[in-house]
Amino acid sequence: MKTLITAAALSFAATSAFAAGHCAAGKTLTDGTLTIATGNPAYYPWVIDDAPEAGKGFEAAVAYALAAEMGFDAEAVTWVRTSFDEAIQPGAKNFDLNMQQYSITPERDKVIDFSAPYYTAPQAVLTTTAVVEAGAMPTLDSLKTLKWGVVASTTALPVVMEQIQPDQSPLVYDDNANVVEAMKAGQIDAALFDLPSALFTSAVLMENGALLGQFDPAAAENPDQFGALMPEGSALKACVDEALAAMTENGTLAAIEAEWLQEATGVPLIK
Fold it and tell me: Which end of the chain is more exposed for a tag (fewer CB within 10 A), N or C?
């Protein structure tokens, strides 16, 4: 099993080739072009107005900053679309990097490559105002009593089963859109999303959405960290990791997070 690299472990000076902007030369699908994939559609706050080429939204902004750190002008960035599940399957890819909130896991890392983390995401409990008004609280004891929905291919399932340990077996869905529809229909009471996505879903996609609480990522044994996904054995990985290390050290990542995810505050911690 390959070793997953943390951002802290990558705080080293760039090589002379990296500093000169040549670390990616000859390593991309199309020489001189960096092809980046996102979802179809891509949602706020990760991408604004489903237009990644505008560079607005957290992941779109990180993508362009990363490209610049690697020596690519904005005009040399090309965007493609993939589904979440197809990108984590083994095989040839139509992108150099894929950024759509992929949690770094050992299982996925067996068939694709991950970059160093570019975001550590708190997990938040999305529910409805009716469930909150019925007495649900941001405590594990209260969460156990709820009926949960999960997407089997995400990291939500082990969190629900191992940390919350609900009284009823969770219902399993194909994607988060189906989870939201199930909650609207009253089939489930709650689901786990990363905090920014939970805020957006609650405010925009649901008329009666509510956030019950969030798990402290610092207290998690294995915090949910997002990495850029690359084809297995990508020659670009070292270059991407060096660029992210530089962006962490010079404050670029923190500034982008503050700009695009700063609204993700004020949700109580689950105890």
Answer: N
Bridge partner residues of 206 (DSSP): none
Amino acid at 160: V
The helix (H) or strand (E) run that includes residue 206 is: none
Residues in contact with 137: Cβ distance below 8 Å, sequence separation at least 6, in sequence order? 212
Distance CA 30, CA 91 (A): 18
Contacts of 177 (CB under 8 A, 6+ apart): none
Q: How far apart are CA 59 and CA 38, in angstroms?
A: 9
Closest CA to 243 of 2, 27, 3, 1: 27
Q: Name beta bridge partners: 34.
A: 77
State pLDDT tens for residues 186-222.
Answer: 999 999 998 888 988 998 899 999 999 998 776 666 6
Q: What distance in Å separates the CA atoms of residue 203 and residue 175, rounded to the nearest whole number?
A: 19
Contact, 217 vs 177, CB < 8 A? Answer: no
Tokens of 128: 């409805």
Find, among 93, 69, 91, 68, the residue nearest to 81 by Cα. 93
Which tokens hold the place of 63? 């993508």
Q: What is the pLDDT of residues 85-133, one digit of tens each?
A: 889 888 889 999 999 999 898 889 999 999 999 998 888 999 999 999 9
